[in-house]
Structure formats: C-alpha cells, structure tokens
Amino acid sequence: MPHRWIRRPEPTGLVYGADYNPEQWPQDVWPEDVRLMREAGVTMVSVGVFSWARLQPTAATWDFGWLDRVLDLLHGGGIAVDLATATASPPPWLTHAHPEVLPVDAEGRRLHHGGRQAWCPSSPVYREHALRLVEEMATRYGGHPALVLWHVSNELGCHNARCHCEVSAAAFRGWLRRRHGDLDGLNAAWGTDFWSQVYSDWEEILPPRLAASYVNPTQQLDFARFCSDELRGQLRAERDVLRRLTPDVPVTTNFMIMGGTRDMDYASWAADVDLVANDHYPDAARARPEIELAFSADLTRGVAGGRPWLLMEHATSAVNWQPVNVAKPAGSLRLGSLAHVARGADGACFFQWRASRAGAEKYHSGMVPHAGTRSKVWRDVVALGRDLAALAEVAGSRVVSEVALLFDWESWWAAELDAHPSDRIRYREIALGWYEALWRAGVSADVVPPDADLSGYRLVLAPTLHLTTDETNRRLAGYTAAGGHLLVTYFSGIVDENDHIRLGGYPGAFRDLLGVRVEEFFPLPPGTAVRVRDEDPGPERTGTQWTGAERTGTQWTGAERTGTQWTGPERTGTQWTGTHWTELLETGTATAVARYTDGPLAGVPAVTVNRYGEGRAWYVATQPAPDAAAALLARVRAEAGAGPVAEAAPGLELVRRSGPEADYLFALNHSAEPAWLRAGGTDLLTGTEHDPGGRTAVPPNDLVVLRTRRR
After folding, report:
1. DSSP readout, 179-227?
2. Rounded to an integer, what distance in angstroms lies between the CA atom of residue 694 and that of residue 593?
3. Based on the domain organization, do 419 and 281 belong to the same domain?
4. Which residue from 620, 612, 615 is spatially nearest to 592, judged by alpha carbons?
5. Strand pairing category for 345-350 and 309-313
6. 513 with 446, same domain?
7. What is the DSSP track for 287-349?
8. CA end-to-end span of the chain
9. Which of 396, 420, 437 is the last residue of a domain?
10. Strand partners, 47
11. What percent of the chain shows pLDDT beyond 70?
C-alpha cells in the first residue's frame, strides 16, 4: 500500500547538495550521513538515480523498504529530496530476458550489459518496464514530505544517444514519415539523385550505418535530430506519468551542457521540464577551464530562457574519466561552484555525497572523500555551505546582459559533417573563442538559441551559424534593421535545414544583410596563417587612441597592451593574424574594415561592416588571433554601446544578477594575484561595506558579491 503523507517543505534560498547513493553503504552509515549533511549545510540530495536493481530485484518483485527508511531519515534531518525515477540503467534481469533492448552501434555491434545506460532509446520493451517503475515510484512517494522535485532518469543520452538497431531503424522511418510526408518529400530533402540513392520503399531506409564512403549528409543530419527526439520522448513519457500522479511536484532532468556533449538538442528539450538542471565537469587539460565553465553556464541559462536553473552535478575535486584526473587546487571548488551561481544557478550540487568504495567511479571525488572529514575537501565543502547560506537572497534573481551569442545544436551537427571544405571547423570552440573575448573584457553575455527574443540586446554575435532556416534569417535581418548590431563569422548562412546549399554565392542566407558576396572558400591548412591589416579605423577612433568606453588616456588599459599599439606577436601597428579560414569575398553595400596582406587572397577584404536599416552588420571571413578578435570586438561593442559590467582589472570575471529589490555584482578572481574592482555595495560573503567611488579589492583565488539596493 502507498504511504500517505500530507506536508511538503518549501525550500528557500540556494540549493546545496549532491547525488546520494545510500544503497552503496551499510544502513548504520545512513544516520551519520544525515548528521554530516546538516554540518555541511546541505539542503537537498538526489536519491535513487541508479537504484532500479535494488527497487525491483526481479521482474515480479519490489523492495521499497530501504528507500522508505532513507527518505524518512532525510526528512527527519530537514533534508529535501530530489527523487530520481531510477530508470537510467536497467537491471541485469531485464537485459537478460530482453536482449533486444540493448543498443547497437553504427558497425552493427550489440553493446552488452556491464556499464550503464544499456538501453535503446526506441525500445518499446524498455519503455514499458521503465514507465511501470515510474508509476510505482510516483504512487508510493508522491506525498512524501521530503519530496520537492522529480528527477527523470539521469544524463539522458550520455552513453546511448545513437542506436542503430532494427527497432531504431523502424522508429527512424516513422519519424521520417512525419517529417517529410512521403518518399518524394524525403528524396527531395535528402538529395538522393546524387550517387543513385533514390528510395522507392520506406523499408529500404536505414540509420546511417558504416558505409563504403561518405553517408548521405542529410540522412546523417536527420538521424541526429531523430536520436535527440527519441531521448526527449523518453523524458516526456516519464514526465507525463509523474504529472498525472503528482501534479504539484516539479519535474527536471540533468542536461550535460559542457565540453563536447553534442547529441542532445537541449534548446528543444527545455520546455519539457519545470526546472532546467545541468551537470558540468571542466576539462582539466584546458588552460583556462573557468572560461568554458562560464560559457556552459551561460548557455544553460540561455536554454532556460533566462530563468534561474540548477547545477545538478559537478565535482568537489578530481573526476574519474579524463586521461589524467587532476585534483582541484585550493580555492577552485569554491570559485567554480559560485561562478555557476553568478551565472544564474539557484544552487550547486555535486556528484556525489560519499566517494564510492567500489565500481567504475570509485576514484571520482565526493563531498565526503575517501579520507573522510579530516580532509581539505571536507573543509571546503563545509565552507561552501556557509557561502551559499550567506547568498540566499540571490535566489530567484536573473542575469541581465547587453550582448547575446547565438548557439544552435543543428548548426553544430551540420557544420561538422564530413566532406566539408575543412575538417578543422569546431563549432563549439569557435563560439567559445568569441565568448572568451567578451569574458576577458568583463562583458556579460547570454548564450541563446537562434529563436530567442533578441530585441533587448545591443549586440548579437553569430559565430559560424552554418545552418539557418528562413525564419532565423528574417529574425536577424529584422533585429539589425531595427537598430541592432550584428557580428557574423565565416561559414555562416551556407545551408538550409536540409543541408542544401543556398545558391548564388556565400554566405547565402546573409548576403543582403551583410552586403557581401563570397565566390569561393580558401580554408587554411594546419600550421599556416595569413596577415591582415586594418583599413581606415573609422569614426570610433581618433588620433592614436580608441574612444571606446572601456579605455582611458592615450593607451589601452588592458594588461596586454602598452603605448599606442599592440605589443602581442600577432599585431604590429594595425596588422594581425588570421588562421583556419579565408574567403574570396567582394563587397557590395558593405565597407571593408580589414584586408589580407599576403597569401592567395592578398588585397581581398577579411572583415566588413554594412549599414542595414538602422543597424550595422559585421562580417569576419577568417579566424582572428585572440588579441585581434578582442580588439575587433571592442570596436564593435563601442559602436553598439555594450560595455563591461563594471570597471575592473583585466581578467576579473564579472557578472551581475538582478532581483526585484537589489542587484548583485559577482567579481571572481581566478588568478594568484590581487585584483581590483571599481564598484560599491555590501559584500554578502563578509558583510563589508564598499564605497562606490573607490576600488574594491578582490583577493587571489577569491571573490566578492556586492549587493546594491534599489531606491
């Protein structure tokens, strides 16, 4: 019989917690866990993520007693619960009885049990058993007073995003019928007259499996869309059961907006959950992992439509799955967690509570490490709990930015298909490079999908927006014509939603908007570069200095510049370096801003600007070296009136969250040297009052959070 409870806590402030896996530990450890959670300031834990085999030991038996005791213990300790549906990994009895639920790779190999996520997203057998489990969970625990959030599955698609089995093939054909209508529509969309691929029967169509040569590119693109939609279908199916049985409990799942995770179109999933949640694990090999962290957090916020979101998982220290799993240095746990909060997260949770003593993730750090509470990690965990409590009033506030950067999963998939002009195109890294120039300048940016409302932004960046729809093209033209400032980079606007070239010269979709026409691509081989020289500096420069708001005197104030010229190796005077890509470009209505000075395109424009309606549209036809990209972007921002969040030392991470009664300026110093910030207010972390007219010191590997109340 289901339990009956009547009271549910209402959590306030910022969430703090972790994945909690009590089934991995003896029951006499559980009360100690709750005691330590209270000591650390934990407010919520995720329970049951990988517990299907414990909850349903066989197809005909259930065991909920242990989970009853865990939830009661947590509730008694004042810890709220994000309860997982436990469907992330099927138990051995299911895959043994129904091996057809196991996924198949592109080479036709059946993947076996022994890891996790051993299921095909299109399998009706898996879904039937999964939804039966969800029904049991919701019926039993829907009224439990500890329950504040449902957690559907876990990292959907992390290991099983693309299955090529016969069940998936049949489901793919059904998806294609709905998208293209009939075979004539499909053949037209896929361009099947090329290489004699015309289909005369639906049964002839398969997922893009291993082939003798390049697989049809639109087939690959449609399969990527289908696979994302199949995983989304599982999310929706579980959510629908939960909403039917527990309509008052919000539903989430944990996205993986980080690094190279590209198989799930999260922008299309966001409307299916009540709260967007994300997992983030920085790549230890990156020189500045805090910048990729900020990009991923801003993209998560963009997917969430600007609303607050939840950091569901990150690591207290080392992970277990990178080539070298580097422990976090002093201060990184705190700064990384609070950087997410700065960028819109209403809480920070870890994987996991206790570091496992067995299994594939036993070397993954936890809030309680193998060393126990006599450890640096535990001391940092407790200190972070105090910080989050001190920042409680920030919850619910939103980040407000003047700049948007467009990011589109379908364009990502299309830009990196095979048989392209260059295999050096890395869509996410290109976007991250332009984002880094904003980050280093202290400029806040929203990373948003192309269908986001752009009307409130002074500047919009569209890095390598390779695939665009006609609607996206109209929206960007309308934004610019109304007075917006747009910057588009190379290999953008090239194909439509079927990956067909927009004819008449590149960048097809944006030719009129940008006022340019490209005859031919000239991608650059690895290790080669071209020199580029700026044309007349234009009205935003006078004499020997820029007039942008972030600069003073007769020189740049950034640390990398001295005197009246760049000192970096990429520029001497007004000359800089371009890499990866060049284009044979001619200007129509646009004006050349910079030209190549060597290489096969010497004298050809590399950067242009076009007046379009009341706004301006910039085009960058090469990949500028980092300092040149920063300089160009500073010029564009100055014209658009999009400045930094505050005046500060170079490299200080700045973000502002805005609430109904106050603003909160986060300034994070990731360096080993002190930094300064010209801003005032009350530091919520220390209680110190800072004079708005003076300089606020930000210690090394530390931060300040300044509150200014509105009158």
Report:
1. HH-SHHHHHHHHTTTGGG---SSGGG-------SS---HHHHHHHHHHH
2. 38
3. no
4. 620
5. parallel
6. yes
7. S-HHHHHHHHHHHHHHHTTTS-EEEEE--SS--SSSSS-PPPPTTHHHHHHHHHHHTTEEEEE
8. 56
9. 396
10. 20, 83
11. 93
Q: What's the gap between Cα 70 and its chain centre?
A: 33
Query: Do residues 512 and 582 both lie within one domain?
Result: yes
Residue that is written with structure tokens 């467009």 in the block? 406
E-assigned strands of 22-175? 44-47, 80-84, 147-151
Q: Report DSSP letters for 474-503, one per residue.
A: HHHHHHHHTT-EEEEESS-S-B-TTS-B--
Tell whether 137 and 193 lie within a shared domain: no
- Tokens 């997203």 correspond to what residue? 121
Structural domain contains residue 9 = no
Tell which residue, 463, 460, 432, has the closest CA to residue 446.
Answer: 460
Query: Residue 710's CB: how many other CB atoms inside 10 A?
Result: 9
Residue 212 within a domain: no
Q: If residue 267 lies in a helix (H) or strand (E), which one and from where to where?
A: helix 266-269
| 72 alpha carbon, distance to own chain's centre | 35
Q: What is the pLDDT of residues 319-354, one digit of tens each?
A: 999 999 999 998 999 999 999 999 999 999 999 999
Determine the structural domain holding residue 531 and report its residue range.
Answer: 403-642
485-543 pLDDT, tens digit per residue, is 999 999 999 999 999 999 999 999 999 999 999 999 999 999 999 999 998 654 444 33
Looking at residue 567, its pLDDT comes to 32
Domain with residue 425: its CATH number is 3.40.50.880
Taking each helix axis from N to C end, the angle separating 183-190 and 217-245, rounded to the nearest 10 degrees, works out to 120
Query: 689: domain CATH number?
Result: 2.60.40.1180
pLDDT value of residue 560: 33
User: Do 306 and 377 lie in a common domain?
Assistant: yes
Last residue of a domain, one of 358, 376, 396: 396
Residue 4 lies in a domain: no
Q: Pick from 336, 353, 343: which is nearest to 281 by CA?
A: 336
Which pLDDT does position 549 carry in this prediction?
Answer: 34
Cα distances (Å, whole numbers) of residue 641 to 174, 246, 458, 633, 655: 50, 48, 7, 12, 17
Residue 390 located in a structural domain? yes
Strand partners, 610: 617
CA distance 50 to 513: 51
CATH of the domain at 275: 3.20.20.80
Contact call for residues 312 and 45 (beta carbons, < 8 A): no
Strand-pair partners of 542: 545
CB neighbours of 232 closer than 8 A, spacing ≥ 6? 264, 268, 269, 272
The total domain count for the chain is: 4
Query: In 3-state terms, what secondary structure has residue 661?
Result: coil
Residues 584-614 pLDDT 10s: 999 999 999 999 999 999 999 999 999 999 9
CA distances from 114 to 96, 318, 359, 703 (A): 11, 24, 11, 43
Instruction: Determine what percent of the chain is predicted with pLDDT higher than 90.
Output: 91
In eight-state DSSP terms, residue 137 is: H
Which ranges constitute the DSSP H helices of 521-665? Answer: 626-640
What residues pair up with 587 in beta bridges, in sequence order? 516
Residues 300, 448: Cα–Cα separation, whole Å:
9
pLDDT beyond 70 at 630: yes
Is residue 303 pLDDT above 90, yes or no? yes
Whole-angstrom Cα distance, residue 570 to residue 244?
60
| 409 and 456 share one domain | yes
CB 633 within 8 A of CB 437: yes
pTM higher than the cut 0.85: yes
Q: Let me know whether 465 and 549 are in one domain.
A: yes
Q: Choosing from 230, 238, 292, 313, which is the catalytic residue?
A: 313
Active site residue 313: yes
The pLDDT confidence band at residue 9, using thresholds 50, 70 and 90, is: low
375 and 414 in one domain?
Answer: no
Q: What does the mean pLDDT of the chain come to?
A: 93
pLDDT band at 4 (very low <50, low <70, confident <90, very high): very low
**Beta carbons within 8 Å of 174's beta carbon, 6+ residues apart:** none
pLDDT of 563 above 50: no
Upstream peptide bond of 289 is cis (omega within 30 degrees of 0): no
